[in-house]
Amino acid sequence: MDKKILIVDDCDTTRKLLSYIVRERGYKIMSASNGIEALEVMASNPVDLVLTDLNMPQMDGFELSRNIRSVDAYRDLPIIMVTTEAGDADKQMGKDAGVSTFLTKPISPQRLLYEIEKLL
Amino acid sequence: MAKIDIQSDRLREFLAEAEDILNSMGKDLLKLGKGVKAGIIDPAVLNSIFRSAHTLKGMSGIFDFTDMFSLSHSLEDTLDLLRLGRTVLTDEVLDNVMAAHELLVRIVASKGTANFTDEIERLKNSLGKSHRVKKARSGEQIDKEVLSALTEYEEHRFRECLREGKNLFIVNVRFPITSFDKGYAALIEALKNHSEVIATLPSAKTSHETLFFDILIGTKNDRAFISNFLRDIAEVEIRVIAEPSSRGAAHDQMKSEPSLEVITGHGRQHGKETLRRVSNTVRVNIGKLDNIMNIVSELGILKTSIASLSAELKSSSEFSVYGLELSRSEKSLERKLAELRESVLDVRMVPIGQLFGRFDTFTNKLSRESGKETRMVTYGDETELDKLIVEELSDPLMHIIRNVIDHAIEAPAVREALGKPRAGAITLSAYQKGNHVVIEVKDDGAGMDADFIRGKAVEKGIVTREYAAGLTRQEAFELIFMPGFSTRDTVSETSGRGVGMDVVKENITRLSGIIDIETVQGKGTRFMLTIPITLAIIQALIVEDSGKRYAVPLNAVIEIIDLRSPEERSGDMESIKVHNREIPSVRLSRYFGKKSSARDVCYGIVAGLAEHRLCVIVDSLVEELDVVIKPLPRILKVPGIAGATDMGEKGTILVLDITGILDQVLKERKTGPPERPSSAPDQNDEKTKAEQLT
């Protein structure tokens, strides 16, 4: 049952709030503040879904997605990107990088949970 | 748990976070405002404001807070342009940024219930109007490798540092992978003292146990200095990127071979010290503290029953030994309880500086809008008050300041003509006085004219001409607290929100506080707010009059006089002489519209707030207790009653509001019974209702 979700965002508060939302549905939470940390976490803990920001220091969301997709075991891992940058170019880049769902802020918690459930 | 509960938990968490961010943004804005006035803009402050807006945007984006999201989004855009040097920070831009901050504060305060769409659209429009300036690219050659790793903002800061002739170094540092976060934070903190930290670049070198960082800094200090002061903190290497201040032009140096300097150090002490600073606070819902308070007061009641039990045991011949033991334990229990109460109270205390800080921005804004110049000074920022009271004080103080800027401070030209400095001084100060805190708002403006106020009050139909004429100068000033009093015929944007000083008075009274005014025409006015330090738990004196018990808050009690001997009492007991001062007095039961038993044996409780005194006469004194005041339901609100307190087995008793009684008695004595004419029976009814509660 307990699906594990990795939340990646460089802002502590956003991370905390996202986990508040997601935890309500009984998911287990792990978190990382950038792409590198996220990959470190994933190296030792299998996760079922990645919820990531786009702009982060050291390794951004696109690069993180590309890195995740390069691992065989994670070829089909759902990746949701939540960001304010909404341009079509960004969406295309996200798609190319392997992002499963691209969500543009503002979104409601209900919508976020709906998207997560759809992918799990 | 029901879903709605979790939802509101989440909402509360979100609002608390947003409040924190807005608070720190407010402080930064203050610094920025001061900087703009002085002509120096600290890029770190500007960037910090930008970060706050960015975080707010990010947070509100994952909630249903579309209002906050759209406003913080456009605020972020404006701030981004500012920090990148693409927009000039003019007064107008600063105004808009401050207005946006203020609106965000209001949005958070409304908890998503109010609609701000129009205001937001207007503000977004003005924020968007800030003019772009062309970016003057400096022609200098910059290390391409370094540049490519920088974000746009970092590059901007890099170029700015170069332009200002600062040295640019890369500090390479390594930390063990197990503790790198703490070491890194300590190093950055230390670096900020002597340089601007422009960026942290991922270092090319990595190993399994060690993490390397390249930190790009701009500084006026030379390399030797930087390496010296980092010696104790961490093991660093310093590479020169540009060193214009030492010799020659900037680009000569930039092309020079990177030089290396290796310093080894231990940095144990420093690292540890900074570590502890990281975060050692807990945010607690004040309701939980209230709960602890209740338990403390219940323990106090239990303690009292143990005390009576031990007294009984002591007097019995058979068990007197146990009685002594029990009474000794009871005494230590009492001491520990007192400590517990103190500590719980201490937790609720916050320095009033938190509140004062908010007014600086607000004052600047109001002054600019009303074309006046002001200078705010605060004293006693460290004075502590109950968190809930601090919040309650926010509105009244804001309103007083509004009035001061609007009505008291003269226009700069007028002030000059009067030989005063152009900028009016507004002084906020706080100090503790016994169990109260006195907060003063002082200005050096026009002062108040008693006759002018009398005239206005008559004109507005608040009082009759005869009544106004009969008032002393001091009493005339009190008229400004009457509902419907406003000295300007046209309500200005600043003072006008449909509220007057009467609301200020009401708010302060609700806190069991009082307002005093001192004013000298032409010189200025001083508002003095005397407020109890806490409302949550109070030490009370339990008294009895005509068979009824009441709790009198000890913080209002100045002394107790024994009126049992006839010579202490004067005929009608309308007043009592204490220390050669004639003090008005009132029999408690009579105040509540009951027949007084008028026993000869009685006590006088001299109560006072600020300069006012009143003697409350009661039959007997029962005991001293810590009580938790529970407010009465609104329909039972009665003047003179602050609330009720649960005494356990002894039932519920009413807690007196000494300020309220004092106010009313003094008024009645001055103006005679007409002051509460037709409403008197009603009030008595209500009093009886409240008493029936007990």
Distinct helical segment count of chain B:
23
Q: Tell me the radius of gyration of chain A.
A: 13 Å
Low-confidence stretches of chain B: 1-6, 247-279, 488-498, 673-694
Number of domains of chain B: 5
Give an overview of the whole structure.
The complex is a heterodimer of chains A (120) and B (694). Chain A has 120 residues and is of the alpha/beta class. Chain A has a single domain (4-119), classed as Response regulator (Rossmann fold, 3-Layer(aba) Sandwich), CATH 3.40.50.2300. Helices cover 43% and strands 19% of the residues of chain A. Chain A has helices at residues 12-23, 35-44, 61-69, 88-97, 109-119; strands at 4-8, 28-32, 49-52, 79-83, 101-104. In chain A, α2 packs parallel to α3 (61-69) and α3 (61-69) packs parallel to α4. The longest helix of chain A has 12 residues, at 12-23. Chain B has 694 residues and is of the alpha+beta class. Chain B folds into 5 domains: 9-129, HPT domain (Four Helix Bundle (Hemerythrin (Met), subunit A), Up-down Bundle); 144-263, Alpha-Beta Plaits (2-Layer Sandwich); 291-350; 352-532, Histidine kinase-like ATPase, C-terminal domain (Heat Shock Protein 90, 2-Layer Sandwich), CATH 3.30.565; 537-693, Roll (SH3 type barrels), CATH 2.30.30.40. Chain B contains 23 helices and 22 strands. In chain B, the strands form 5 sheets. In chain B, strands 2-3-1-4-5 form a 5-stranded antiparallel sheet, sandwiched between helices. In chain B, strands 7-9-10-12-11 form a 5-stranded mixed sheet. In chain B, strands 20-13-14-22-21 form a 5-stranded mixed sheet. Mean pLDDT of chain B is 77; it is low at 1-6, 247-279, 488-498 and 673-694. The A-B interface holds A 9, 11, 13-14, 16-18, 20-21, 24, 53, 57-58, 82, 84, 105-109, 112 and B 3, 6, 9-10, 13-14, 17, 21, 54-55, 57-66, 69-70, 73, 200, 202.
